[in-house]
Design a protein that fits this description.
heterodimer, A: alpha/beta, Rossmann fold, two-stranded antiparallel sheet, 10 strands, B: alpha+beta, Dna Ligase, domain 1, six-stranded antiparallel barrel, 13 helices, 29% helix, flat
C-alpha cells in the first residue's frame, strides 16, 4: 500500500513543474505509438494490411485508409434490401473481387446469380459457393474458410450474429489475414433491428439503393447506393453516396458529387492521409 | 474371315470360319464389325470377376468360356440346379447367351458345354466318363492340327481314343493328348488359376485389449493413416475414398468414410479429414480391430513441395474443399460454370470446385445479383406490344417505374422441350421510385398468343 502511494507520488509532477507547458509530442512519435497500439491489438503482432476503396473521401474516414484485411466486416441492405440483399451482394462481390484470389460464398438460399456477381468483378473461376441447409453450417463453413488461408475473402449470408460468434470469426480471420464479409440478411424486415446489436466486426455498412438522376435519354443509369458506415473501430460513422461497382469491383463517386468544392470536414484520419 | 455370328446371321447360313466375301454373297446388307480379340479377352476377365460371387475359384477359359469351381459353394445358392438357373438368367439379362454345364472335371464340362447335346446341364457325379465317351475328339481342348491328324487316322469319338493303348498314342502324337484325356476323365489334377480382383490397399490394427477412449482411437487412427500413406506411396497412388472400419467387441462395425476432391496422400490432410468425423464413432464396449482401406484410389506421382525459399507457403484450395465436403456433404460445395443458354435459369451450371471453368458469359447486358428461384407473378400496367411497364405490383406493393430498359428477347429452346418451340420471354430492366432495380419478363412477345400468355413475372433483383 505504501509502495503504491510512493509510486503515485513519484508520478505526480511537482507543483512548480505543473505550471510549465508540456512539450507537444511530435507527429512521428504519435504515428509510432499508434502503430504500436495497432500491433498490440492483433493476435500475432503482425502489421495489418488494408484494402482501399480507391475513393479518397471514404478511405480517409477509415483507420488505415481502407478495409482491414484479416478482420470481420458486416454488410446489410437497407429497407427491403435487408431481405433480398441484392445491393449488399453487389457491394460484397466488389470488395471480394478486389482482394484478388479465390472467394468462398456461404449461403442457405438459392438465389445468388453468378453472371451478376461476375459483372461486379468476381468471375466464376474465382467463386466457390457453399450451399447448406442451416445457419449453423454457414457459420461453420465461414470459419473453416477463414482459418484455411487459401482464400483471400469469404462472404457468408447470415441472419444472426452475436458477440461470441463474431469474436470467433474475427480471430479466425486474423490468423490467416483473410477478409471476412458477413452479409446480414433476414427473413423479415422487422428482424433487421438485429443489425444494431454489438458485434466484434471492425466495420458495419448498410447499402441501400437510391434513385440516380434522370438520364436525358430513355434508359437506365448506373446504380447508385447510399452507403452508411454505421460503425467503425477507431473512427467516426459516415454516410456516402456512391455509384455501384464497375466490372473491376470499384465503386465511384457520382460525378456531380466528385466535382464539388472540398468539404470542410476531412475526418480525423484525414490529417495523416 | 468370319469369327463370330449372331442368331439372325446363323439363320441365313453364315458360319464362323467362312470367308467374308462368301457371307456377303449370302446376304448383301450384312453388318460387319471388326473382331477385337484383346477387348474380348478383357471382357471375359471382367465377367470372371463378376462370377466371383458364385465361388472363390473362377477363371476365364478363353476364347469364350468361364470355368467356375463350385465344389462346396452350390448350397449357398440353393443347390446346383438353382445356381445354374440363376446364373443363366442373370447372364441373359445382360445380353449374354450362356450354355451352363456342370461336370466332375474342367475338361468334361468344357467338352459338354460345347459339344454335348444332353438334356440336363448337370452331369451327376461319377457318370462323367460315360457321357464323355460319346463326344468328338475336338472337344478335348487339343490344337486344331492334332485334331485333324487324329481324324485322318480314323479317331472320331473319345471312345475310340480311350480304348487305345496309351504308349503308341504318346509316341505318335506327343504327351499332350494323354494329358488332356486324363484331365477330362479326372485321372490327372488340373488346377484353376483363379481370377483376382485388384487388391485394395488396406491396413489393420488388432488390439489385445479393446480400446474405447476417444483419444486412443484418434491416436491409432493416426498410426493407420501413416501406414496407409506409406503403402500408397509404394504403389504410387492417392486416396479418393477411404473407409475406416472399427469392429466392436459386440461384433458390430462402426464405419467412417472420407472422400477427397483429388487423389491425396498427405498424412496431415488425411488426419484432418478423418479427425473431423472420428467423433461419430461409437466405441460401445470397446473396439477390437481397426482397419483403414483406400477403397477408391487414383495414380498420384511424386511432386515437389514448396519450400519457403521458392515461394510463399499457401495451402491449396482443394484441401479446403475436402474439409467442407466431408463435414457438410459432398454436394454442398460447388463452383458456377457458364452454360450455353440464354434462359437465365439455365445459364449457370454448378460443377465441382476443382474442375476448370470455361469462358465466362459473353453478354454485355446487365445481369441481376439475385435471381428468384422461381419467377413470381406480378400485376403490370404496360403498353403493348413492347413498351416497358409503367407500374407494377409485386409482393403486395405497387411500384412506379422511373427508368426502364428493354426488351431483351429470349427465345425458348425448342431442342430441349416441345412447348418451348414458339415461346418467347421479353426481359425488362426496371428502376422504381426508391431506386431499387428489378428484372421482370413477359411471357410472349406482346402480339401473338402462341408465343406465351402475355403474363408478367418478377425474376431478379439488380445490385
Amino acid at each position: 500500500m505504501e509502495q503504491k502511494e510512493n509510486l503515485i507520488n513519484v508520478k505526480r509532477p511537482h507543483a512548480s513543474e505543473r505550471c510549465k507547458p508540456v512539450p507537444a509530442p511530435s507527429r512521428s512519435t504519435l504515428t509510432d505509438l499508434r502503430a504500436r497500439i495497432r500491433r498490440l491489438e492483433t493476435v500475432d503482432g503482425r502489421e495489418r494490411t488494408y484494402l482501399p476503396f480507391g475513393i479518397r473521401e471514404i478511405d480517409q474516414r477509415l483507420p488505415g485508409g481502407g478495409l482491414a484485411l484479416g478482420s470481420l466486416h458486416e454488410v446489410a441492405g437497407g429497407g427491403s434490401g435487408a431481405i433480398d440483399g441484392a445491393a449488399a451482394a453487389g457491394f460484397c462481390a466488389g470488395i471480394a473481387a478486389r482482394t484478388g484470389g479465390q472467394v468462398l460464398w456461404c449461403l442457405t438460399r438459392l438465389d445468388l446469380f453468378p453472371p451478376g456477381i461476375a459483372q461486379a468483378g468476381l468471375p466464376p473461376e474465382r467463386l466457390i459457393r457453399v450451399r447448406v441447409d442451416d445457419e449453423k453450417s454457414v457459420l461453420l463453413a465461414f470459419e473453416e474458410g477463414l482459418r484455411h488461408g487459401s482464400l483471400t475473402a469469404v462472404v457468408a449470408e447470415v441472419a444472426k450474429l452475436d458477440m461470441t460468434t463474431s469474436r470467433r470469426l474475427q480471430l479466425a480471420a486474423e490468423s490467416t489475414g483473410t477478409l471476412a464479409l458477413a452479409l446480414r440478411r433476414w427473413r423479415r424486415e422487422t428482424e433487421a433491428g438485429d443489425f444494431g446489436q454489438p458485434t466484434a466486426a471492425r466495420t458495419k455498412w448498410r447499402v441501400s439503393e437510391v434513385m440516380p438522376e434522370a438520364l436525358s435519354v430513355p434508359g437506365v443509369a448506373r446504380a447508385r447506393w447510399a452507403l452508411e458506415l454505421l460503425r467503425v473501430q477507431g473512427a467516426n460513422c459516415a454516410d456516402f453516396i456512391v455509384d455501384a461497382c464497375d466490372e473491376q469491383g470499384f465503386i465511384a463517386l457520382p460525378s456531380v458529387l466528385a466535382d464539388r468544392t472540398a468539404a470542410p470536414d476531412v475526418g480525423i484520419w484525414g490529417a495523416r492521409a | 474371315m468370319v469369327t463370330a455370328v449372331d442368331d439372325l446371321a446363323q439363320k441365313i447360313g453364315v458360319r464362323p470360319g467362312m470367308a467374308i466375301v462368301k457371307a456377303q454373297a449370302l446376304f448383301s446388307d450384312l453388318v460387319l464389325m471388326d473382331a477385337d480379340p484383346r477387348e474380348d479377352a478383357q471382357a471375359l476377365e471382367r465377367l470372371a470377376l463378376w462370377a466371383l460371387r458364385l465361388s472363390p475359384v473362377v477363371a476365364a477359359d478363353p476364347p469364350d468360356g468361364l470355368v467356375i469351381d463350385t465344389t462346396g459353394a452350390d448350397h449357398l445358392h440353393g443347390g446346383e440346379a438353382n445356381m445354374i438357373e440363376t446364373v443363366t438368367r442373370r447372364l441373359s439379362e445382360t445380353g449374354i447367351t450362356a450354355v451352363p454345364t456342370l461336370a466332375d472335371t474342367w475338361g468334361a464340362a468344357h467338352a459338354l458345354a460345347r459339344f454335348g447335346r444332353s438334356v440336363s446341364p448337370i452331369t451327376p457325379p461319377g457318370e462323367t466318363a460315360q457321357v464323355l465317351l460319346d463326344l468328338p475328339v475336338a472337344s478335348l481342348r487339343l490344337s486344331p492340327a492334332l485334331v485333324d491328324s487324329l481324324r485322318g487316322l480314323g479317331f472320331e469319338r473319345i471312345s475310340d481314343l480311350a480304348s487305345q493303348p496309351r504308349a503308341p498314342l504318346t509316341l505318335r502324337f506327343g504327351p499332350e493328348l494323354g494329358r488332356r484325356l486324363d484331365q477330362a476323365f479326372g485321372r490327372e489334377r488340373e488346377p484353376i488359376k483363379a481370377a483376382v480382383e485388384a487388391k485394395t490397399i488396406r491396413v489393420e490394427r488388432v488390439f489385445a485389449e479393446p480400446i474405447g477412449a476417444p483419444e486412443t482411437i484418434r491416436r491409432y487412427a493416426l498410426k493407420l493413416i501413416v501406414q496407409l500413406c506409406d503403402a500408397l506411396e509404394v504403389a504410387g497412388l492417392g486416396v479418393r475414398t477411404a473407409d475406416l472400419l472399427c469392429q466392436r467387441v459386440d461384433n458390430r462395425v462402426e464405419s467412417v468414410r472420407i472422400g477427397t476432391a483429388r487423389p491425396l496422400r498427405d498424412v496431415k490432410q488425411l488426419t484432418r479429414l478423418l479427425g473431423d468425423k472420428l467423433d461419430t464413432v461409437d466405441p460401445g464396449f470397446g473396439i477390437e480391430v481397426m482397419s483403414l482401406a483406400a477403397t477408391l484410389t487414383e495414380p498420384l506421382g511424386a511432386r515437389q513441395l514448396h519450400s519457403s525459399l521458392i515461394g510463399p507457403d499457401t495451402p491449396d484450395v482443394g484441401s479446403l474443399v475436402d474439409i467442407l465436403a466431408n463435414r457438410l456433404g459432398e454436394n454442398t460445395i460447388e463452383r458456377p460454370c457458364p452454360a450455353a443458354s440464354d434462359l437465365p435459369e439455365r445459364s449457370v451450371q454448378w460443377i465441382s470446385p476443382m474442375s476448370a471453368v470455361k469462358t465466362p458469359w459473353a453478354h454485355d447486358w446487365k445481369r441481376p445479383t439475385r435471381l428468384l428461384p422461381r419467377p413470381e407473378a406480378i400485376e403490370v400496367l404496360a403498353l403493348l406490344p413492347d413498351s416497358p411497364p409503367r407500374t407494377f405490383k409485386w409482393r403486395g406493393i405497387r411500384r412506379r417505374v422511373m427508368q426502364a430498359d428493354g426488351p431483351e428477347r429470349v427465345f425458348g429452346e425448342w431442342w430441349k422441350r416441345d412447348p418451348e418451340l414458339e415461346s418467347i420471354r421479353d426481359y425488362y430492366y426496371l428502376v422504381d421510385e426508391t431506386g431499387k432495380r428489378y428484372w421482370v419478363f413477359r411471357m410472349g412477345d406482346g402480339e401473338f398468343d402462341a408465343t406465351g400468355d402475355q403474363s408478367w413475372y418478377m425474376h431478379g433483383l439488380f445490385a
